[in-house]
Design brief:
The structure is a single chain. The chain has 111 residues and is mainly α. The chain has a domain of 77 residues. 89% of the residues lie in helices and 0% in strands. It has four helices and no strands. Helix 3 runs antiparallel to helix 4. The longest helix is centred in the middle third of the chain and has 46 residues.
């Protein structure tokens, strides 16, 4: 009986997390499309988000969007740096015709 109750609680928590994540994505997408805060609020209410949570989400949209933008910028910069470093290692490996050194450099970069 206790195990069943714990499974039900876990299901509700997972459902609430999924609802929150999908609703946050909806709100950010609607903001990107130029919808007003009221229109976003109505959409959140239609999705089953309670009023205090919907208000909180709307108040956090600018902060979330800025955070996502920073994360995307950092990921892009890291990807470009990794690509450039990979080309440098490849060039060095081909130039000295010793592929073992290039393989060793790649292994060391991963550590």
């Amino acid at each position: 009986m206790l195990q069943y109750a714990l499974k039900q609680k876990k299901f509700k928590e997972d459902f609430n997390k999924e609802l929150f994540i999908s609703s946050a994505g909806y709100a950010l997408n609607e903001k990107k499309n130029g919808k007003s805060q009221y229109e976003i609020y109505v959409g959140l209410a239609e999705r089953g988000i309670d009023e205090p949570y919907a208000n909180h989400m709307i108040n956090q949209l600018d902060e979330w969007a800025e955070s996502l933008h920073k994360d995307a910028s950092l990921s892009l910069q890291a990807g470009i740096a990794t690509l450039v470093l990979g080309f440098v290692v490849l060039y060095i490996t081909l130039k000295i015709e010793r592929f073992e050194i290039g393989a060793l450099l790649i292994i060391l970069m991963e550590l």
